[in-house]
Each structure stands twice: as C-alpha cells, then as structure tokens.
C-alpha cells in the first residue's frame, strides 16, 4: 500500500502518534477526515484508518520510518508552514490535492495544533534566537565597583577582609544558644578591630567617622544578618542613644566600654502595648526627692519592654525610655541608663528578663522582654541632653513641649533609619548575585532537538530578576544621597531628612522583601535549601519592614511631611499661591498632555531621561496636590482631622511612594551624569532606563487614569521593558559581580 | 501686659511651643510676622517677641494657662476653622484685626500647619468616626462553616478531632532529627486512624474515597505543614504512583502496607539537573534479557534524585522514574519500584542517600538525594500500567509515543495539584485568622484625647487584609470546583482538568504566599515570633510555589492549553472562524465599550455581579486572542515557535491568570446563588464584590489600556473597594471564625 498517495498522509499519521496529546475525540475527528477524502479509494481509506486505530498502534520502527520520510522531504524547505505544505511536499505533486487546503487548515484547527510548531519537529535545527544569548563582559566590572563604593572604598575593603576570615565561617547549628554566642564572639572581634566605635568621638576612643560607620553596617550585611543587627544594637542603638541623648558625664563613663563591648547594652523603647505609638509608653521613672534617685517601674505586664535586642542573654545595661514623673506630674517620655545584669551576667534585683524565643529569623540576636519592679537608679543616670531634673528637684528643658522634646530626641536617632535600609540593600545584592549567577548556569528546556538553555535566557526569568537588579542599583544611589544629606545636615533640614530617612527605610526594605522573594522562587528547589542562603537573607530581613518603624506607619509620616512642605510652598508663593499653583500645574499638565506627547512611542523618547524624570515629577506633584485637596474637602465636610487622615491612608502611601521614586530616579540620573567612562556610562544608563520604565509600567494604571499617557504609549513601554531586559541579560552576571561581595559571604553552592 | 489685644495672639504662642515640630526658621517667620503687626504698640510687640524666644521658653504653667484660655474661648464653637478664627474669638471683638485674615492665612501656610488640625487640640472630643467601628456578628457563623465544608463535613470533623489530641502538640525542638521523628509518629497515628489509605481501593484496605482524601489533606494543613507534606509523600505520591502507574500485582503487594505506613516510601522523580523539564531525566533502567531484571543507574552526579521526601531517613522503597533502555534503545521515562532500605532502616547496597539538610521550612520532612549504582531489581518491579517488557524482552505499550505515554502517566498524578493548593488555602486561612483576630484587639494611636483604636479600624490595615480574606473565600470555591471536576472526570476532559489543576495550584499557592506575607507584616513584631506561627505557615508554604511544578512554568502550560482551546473553538466555527470570532468580539466590545458603560459609576452597577463577570470574561477573551495573534505574527515573521513562545512568556502569564480569575469569580457567584439564608447570602455577596472589584482594581491598567473602562470608573472602583473594606470590617472576625480552625492548631497567643 506504500503508494505516494498514501505517503502524503504520513504527517497526519505521525501526528496522531507523536508527542501531542490527542484525545479519543480527536482520533475520531481524524477518522472522519480520512473517510471524507473522496480522492482516495476505499482500500486506501481503510488502510489509513487502520493506522489511526487507538487499539492497534503502529510499531516503533514504523514511527521512526515515518519521521525520517518526512524529514527527508521537507529538508531545508523554509517555505513549509503547515501540515498541508508537508502533504504537498510528500505527495511529489502527483496527487491532486490542491483543493484540499481548506480542509487541512480546518483539521489543524479541529485538532488544536499549530502547524508551524509541528513542523519544527522535522526541520534541521536552525540556531535558536533564545538559545543564542549568553553572558558577556561589555564593561569593566571594577569601574562599577568603584562607583558603588565611592569614598568609602577603604573601610569597605577592611570590613570585607575581616568577615572573610575563617573565624567568620557561618554558624550552622540550629541551637539558638550556640548561634547567639557565635554572633556575640563575632561582635567582639569587630570591636577589637575598632569597627564598633567608629562613630564615637575620638576623645572616647572612637573613630569619629559616621560615614564609615554606615559603610561598616552595609558591608557587614553581606555576612550573617544577626551579626549586623547585634552590632547595630550594641554600637548603634545603645551607644548612639548615650551619645545623642546623654551629656559629657555619660560619654566619659560609658562610651569607651560600649565601643569595646565591655558593656553590652540594650535600647529599651518598645513595649508590648506600644510599638508604633511610642508616645504612649507606660514605663515610669519616678523622681525621689529624698535621695535624688529615679524609680523605674513597669506598671503592668503589657507595659514590659519587648523585642529588646541584647536583652535575653548579654545586655548589662539599657537605655530605657520611660515617662518621667515628678510629684505626680507627668513630664513625658525621657531616657535613662538602667543596669540589668552584673559583669558576671547575673540579672539584678528588680529586673525580670524574658526570652522572645525562636523567631522567623535573626536567631543569633537575643531579643528579650524586660520588666522593672521599682528599680532605683541614681539621678545621674538620666540621659539629660534635652531634659533634666535640677538640684531642687524641678524639671528643666530647653524644649517645653513634652511631645516636641520626645520627637527631638527621636530625631537624633535617625541614623538607624539609614543603617537599616543600607543593610537591606546589601541583602538584596547578595540574593540577586546568587539568583542571577545560578540562572546563568541552570539549564532547563530548549529548542526541539537542541541543548537546554540557561534559564536566564527566558523572558519571564529576565522579567523576574532584571528590573529588580536595576532597582537595586537605583536604590543604592538613593541611599548614598540620604546618607550624604544626613552627614551634611543643618538644623533647618532635619524634618525633611527625617522624612526622607523614614521613606527610604520603607522603600529599601520593601524592595528587599520583594527581591528576595523573587530570588527564592527563581532558584526553585535550590533556593529553598538553607545552604544556598536565600533562607537566611529572606527571613532575617523580613523584620526590617517592621523594626526601626513599621513601614506603613512611616509612609504615612512621609506623606504628612510632603503635605506640610506643599502647604509651605503655597505660603512662599503668596496668598494666592494655591490658585497660582493649580493654574501652573494645569498649564504644565496641558503641555505634557498634548496628544503628541501622551502618544509618543519612538525609542528615543521612551529611553529619554528627561521624559522619565518629568513623568515621575508629574506623578509626585499631582498625587500630592490631589491628596491635599481631598483632605481639605473631608475636613470642610465636617470630619475630624484624625478621621480624614484615616480615610485617605491608602492614597497617602502613594504620595510617599511617588516622592521616593522621584528622589531615587533623580539621584541615579545625577550619578550617571558624572560618569566619564563610556562603557560604564552605557550600562548604567540602561539600568536607569529599566528602573524608570518598569516603575512607570507598574504605575501605568495611574498614568492612564491621569491622562498623562495613552494606551499606545503604556503598551510601548511594556515592550521596551522586555527589550531592555533582553539587552541587559548578557551583562547581568557582571553587574552582580560588580557588587563585589566576598565569595566566603555569598557561600551558596549554586552561586559558585 | 495681659490685655485682650495680647490675648488674641496666645494661639500663636501656644502653637510655637506646642507639639508641632517648628524649626528655627519657622521661629523667625513668626517673629517677622509679629514685628509687622502695625496695630500693636512697640511694647506689645516686644512682649510677644519675648514669648517666642527659643532660648527663653515659657514655663509649663504658662503653657497650661494658655491652653486653658484657648479651650474656654472656642468651646463648642464649631464655626472655628483656622488660627484666625481663634484669634477673633479670643480678642472678644475688641481688637480691630479684621484686615489681618490674609496675613494669618499666609502665616498658616508659611508654618506648614493645618489650622483645622491644630484646632482639634482645643476642642471637646466629639466621637471619632474611625474609633466607632467594631466587631459585630451580623450572621450565623456556623451557616458559613457548613457551606465551606459541604459534603465533607464528617471527615473534616474527624480529622480536626484527631489533630486536636494532646499528642499532636506542636514540636518546638529546633533539632531537625527530633522534628522528623515527631512528624513520622504523627503520620503513624493518622495511618492507624485509616486516614492515609482513604483513597485506595477497598479490597486493599482503603476507603476508596478520593473526595475525603483531599478533605483530609486540607484539614491536616491547619496543623503542622511538615505533617501534611510527609503524609502527602507517603500516601499520595508514593501510594498513588503505585496505584496509578502499577497494576494488580503491585496493588496486592504494596498498597495495604503503604496505607498502614509499614512501607514508608518515596516518589523519586526530580533530579538535580532536571526539575521542570522532567522529560529530560537521565537516570536509566536498563533491561537485562538474561535474568529478566532491570539495572537502575545514576549516570553522573547531577542525575541524582534530589529533594526526595522521605528519602533522607524513613523511606524503604521508592517509585523511581528512569529512562527505560532495551538493547541500547531508549524507550523514554517509565516508573519502577526500587527498594532503598531494609526493614531495619539500613541503606541497601548500591544506594547512596544524601540529606538535603536544613531548609527554609518543612524541616519535619526528611528530603534527600538518592544515587543508584547499578542497582538490580526484578522485572515485576516495573509499574506496568502504561508500558511493559514482554516475555521476549520486547517493549510493549498501548501508547507508542514515549512523550505521550510519559505525559499520560503524569496526568494520572494530577491529584497532587489538587491537594497542594487546598493545603495552601488552609495555611492562608490560618494566617488570616491570626492576623485578623489580632488586628481586632491590638490598639495603637487614636483620636487626640481619646482611647487608642483597634488597628483593624485603620483603612490601610483593612486594605492589607480584607481583600485577601475575600480572595481566600473565592479561591475556596474555585478549588471545590476543581476537585469536583476531577472527581467526575471523563477521558475527554482530562487535558482541561490538568490545565485547570496546574493553574489553580499556581493561583492558590501564590495567593497564599502574598497573604502570609501581608499577615506577617500586619502583625508587626508579634508576627515575627515563632510562637505566633506565621513563621512556620509562611516558610513551610514557601516551596508550594515550586514543588508539584514551578508556578511560572505551570502558568505557561495553562496558557498553551487556553491557546489550543481557542484554536479548536475556531475550528468548530468553520474555516472562517477566526474572522467571525474577531468580528463578533469587536461587536461585543463595541457594545460594552459604549461610553455610558465605560463611564458608569453608580453603586448599583459597580456592585453588580453581571458587570463583574462580564469584565472578567472580556479580559480573559481579549488577552487570549491578543496572545494568539501575536504568536502567529511572530511565527509568520520567521521566528521558530520555541522563540516565539519565549517572546510572549510575560503575556502568557496574563492569559493564564485572566482565565483562572474568571473561573474563580464564576464559581464563587454560582455558590452564592444557591445560598438561601438571607444574612449568609448578604455577607458572601459583599466578599464576592470585594474580590471582583479588587481584582479589577489590580488590573485597572489593562482595562484602561483596552478602553473597557475609563478613568472615572476605575477611580470609582478604588473608592468602592475602600468602602467594602470598611463595611466588611465588623464581620471580619466572624468570617475567619467561620473557617472553624481548631484553637489548638492556631495556637498563636496573639490570636486568642
């Protein structure tokens, strides 16, 4: 029966029995099709039907022959696009089938197969576009590292060399007592290296270098994050609270021993019932006139100090925040140094320590609860920079408002909100280094007949990781800017800097949360094994979104600061400021909303820095003005301010986010402008474009609602994001290598 | 100097020294303002200036007097809205200040203060709107539980009673050996209760009830998730692979002992180098004609079996997937029962077991690696339902294509993709129960002078948790639907059901990931403590997005299935189907895109089920057609299918998601239609509306791009989502209580 008429139907037969999962229903479809072919004889039809009988499959040899026949016939015929084309090729033109094309097309549809795909199976493999992409080095990695490290390169190098020593091998014990002790020992080594006291005044043995202190925090974060948090509690929270809230006598008494870790200590602010709303702390410090002492007391169980780092095991002293009471009068929250343990580690009388126990992460840090049962401390233990009790037992302060004083005190501690986001950023860099290196090596699937392809060549995988890589670079420069503003601060800028720090803390820690989540999933099962460290990175940083201020609460503060600034800028414009502003804004918006702009989609425009920044600024301004109007309207309608702010909470997050994104983009752009090396500039520009466009894409709903962009443009942006991911992919490994994380810190077997 | 002229300026003085954080710059602003007041005498100006001298603050008593003066003057005067209004009230109208209004307004602006807010400080507290919301019971909780449990109520009740026994107290040891043994012991108890063999045929001691088996998996997931996974490995993966891939002789030999846990076993498919692409597995099973045996062999290290549950410690046997080789010919991947350990737990010759070690979660499951060094097994150990080697040593199979056979085999194992998403859903329910109960009790901040307010009263907190609550209900009914389709499956539906299972597995596990993340953050520091169980829930379910098929890969499969269905529906429409479809679609779109509809924002419309479903269906259809067109275009342009599919990967995720969301919404709506009790129906409807609108809000960028909605409508939807959250808040605690999770399972101290 092997005539050429029959031969023409081999592709169909092969199709039935090949890899495609045809169902019994589709078998019958094919049987009907064959039966309907009037140009075949009944015998020929019978023969073909016998070959699509589900209970009587062809032999493997037969299948192999069919395949080879087809391959021979269509070899190198690129014109072949459908099953019908194969049929024609196989029939050697001796069969009159030209009228059957529609029937075959219908069959392809009925079977739900894509002719083009099917044909791939038979073709000699051309090079796959997807398979062709690979890692390349198009720029000098070290030049990027130098830009990232900037003026802190020396201290970064020193810290890296310390944490790469053998004694910093990661602790693998799941016993939290062992882990806590290891972390303590590490802290001691760092103290001995004079890294802990870096920020303290030189006269107390310190390095008097706050910039270096932040760089230390960030670099340590390439290593175990329990270490950086324990380090931060001891030298940052505990030491800096003494330095910022105390006076000379406290510096002389404590700073040197804090810096050397001779006095491990705590920062005891949070209470069980008061975390975000610290103004409401309930611990009391009652002044005793008779012997000039304070009695520190926990009035009820829920007023105990909670989550206090260094409390459960090592802390010998604590800066305790408590309401100062003199003669029954409450003078608001103030700070006191309270001893917790003797030098042998025995808990002192009146102190009750609890252990927070096992946590989601950071189990190398001994968080605990502290309760005070009428603990008496000498008067000199009050940290008295902003308030004191005089010899007559009277309260004195240059800041009469209790709240204002308290917030001034908190303001001096803003450094924590710089250290934490920088630590979070470092963790994101570690995660991305592991995930991107792995994705460059891990192969899975591939073109039919070809080798498997690195998973980083897949568009979804690029989409999952590369915008995060771009964002990490962007946030890096945003945090550099925050640090520099803090280091060069003047009194009048403090509120803005505090808001920026609160905002960048939230932006960076949320970003890290998202990045490490994606890294975990992108590494599949390997990402779940603790040996590959994404577990530790992710779970340790999980609390970063909560401590040093809950992100959601902080974002509300940032938004309130923006609203206040907004009102001030009206003031400066004069009484009719608002009207002018609205008019100006409308005019700008009209200019930018010119249909030629809202629909502009050429590459040059989409990749233009100015377009990006304008779009970010427009969003920032518009959302802010809209929130301000809405709050005013709600209050005019009779709502209390507290209620009005609650109604707009969701919008306030956008106000803060739009502000932060603009700052981050702007700082990234300013940094790039200063870069001279062409190749370096080129790749940083691409990352900047990817950051800008992927943020716009994320916010496209807003831009479309606002009318700033039309659908044609947001769609073009989506495509451009895909394209940028594809273009950056060959440089991705070099870009994570530029973070220059010590291999001993990365440690993940999959990242080698 | 206390004349009434001066008195009028008290509000300003108070403002300077009050809680607002005025900067030195703002002090000078105020000083300039005072100096400019021509209606005051030089002495009066001097006096006022002396009261805004930063180096000479007023006494606390003075401040208190000022405050009380202000309060007395403005008491109950609701007309007072600005600082100027207070000034007027205080001046007793005897000061000619009417011309100063603009100056005061400018001052308010310059200082960046909101007069309205400031005034709240002085007013007698009215009831706060925000503070007034509280938990209520508006419906019968048990009625909802009955709807959720449905026909499985009896088995659910039984499982809950078992896991509430004292021996199921959570394991708190961090020693993974202890934990693994505890989980094993729990599995033994469940086996003794005849819960493990629930799905097996009655003749082998089973319950022959697959519906109950799924309900058991789901209910066990309220307890330790290592337990449910170990249980699933033993009774699901290991047992069901024997049942689905083996024949009578295997059932008789193994099923009873698997069901009783006498033979702990493994499901050994994944290899280090092949996870998603299991078609490429490299382990070999070579047939030996001489003694009718197979030699199981691991050709190189990266072909070892990896992540295999039950392998590291307990497994005595495994279903091993390996390429069958006969006479040098490769017959594709088949399954074989291979002994690993003797009954004393000693590893057998030729077997090398590795331990995956510590993982991010599920540390009660002993995952391991397995290597085979020429391990010989008898011929009867081949699970031969779909393929076998006959007495002559020839390969036989009713499915000649190797790939098709393999995918048919995998298809019989689809049950795992039902058990896992149901388990994930249960974990989300636990997390939400903990977070919502806590948010209802946890108080923080409050109206000035009032008590602190439950954090669930804050709009952001509602936004964070309540759409997730609605989604959890929605997914519940989606998974009920999936289960029911699986239980009532016919051969011709299998591909669709497999796609639905793959999709719902991804949708549910990603949803759980997001929900538990939000729950952790919403519980702040408490959410970080292991005692509150979000740690375990979150880290244990983390791998759910990877195992039983990586979600991203599964979503591509779902999308391909939708594309195939799409092509078939063309087929059914005839050769000109595509043209007709496009025409029909355009017509529908034109009707629905009528400006009256795209801009319709009345409540009735926004809350209308029909509107929701139409919007979901429109999205599903449009995205699918657009992806189909795009792939066709890319292939027409000369791209290989493999490359074309890579280019659209990102869009394929949307294709799959839009399909799943439509299914979930539809099933939720169908369920509600059947509810008769009015109160029950009412609250479920609200949840359904919240699910529908929050998904539309999430996808608003798409709806705006498509033109299906205009900005006015998406904005109205955002407001409606806020409103629904506010409306559902009093019922939130009852809605999580309706999940009816045993208190001993919840166990979190904060959820009591």
UniProtKB/TrEMBL annotation, chains A, B:
Residues 612-751 form the Acyl-CoA oxidase C-terminal domain. It is an enzyme of class 1 (oxidoreductase). GO terms for biological process: fatty acid beta-oxidation using acyl-CoA oxidase; lipid homeostasis. Pfam families: ACOX (PF01756), ACOX_C_alpha1 (PF22924), Acyl-CoA_dh_M (PF02770), Acyl-CoA_dh_N (PF02771). SUPFAM superfamilies: Acyl-CoA dehydrogenase C-terminal domain-like (SSF47203), Acyl-CoA dehydrogenase NM domain-like (SSF56645). Keywords: FAD, Fatty acid metabolism, Flavoprotein, Lipid metabolism, Oxidoreductase, Peroxisome. Its EC number is 1.3.3.6. InterPro entries: ACOX_C_alpha1, Acyl-CoA_Oxase/DH_mid-dom, Acyl-CoA_Oxase/DH_mid-dom_sf, Acyl-CoA_oxidase, Acyl-CoA_oxidase_C, AcylCo_DH-like_C, AcylCoA_DH/ox_N, AcylCoA_DH/ox_N_sf. One of its GO terms (molecular function) is FAD binding. It is found in: Peroxisome. Residues 411-560 form the Acyl-CoA oxidase C-alpha1 domain. Residues 266-375 form the Acyl-CoA oxidase/dehydrogenase middle domain. Residues 187-259 form the Acyl-CoA dehydrogenase/oxidase N-terminal domain. Its cofactor is FAD. Belongs to the acyl-CoA oxidase family. This is acyl-CoA oxidase. It comes from Flavobacterium hydrophilum.
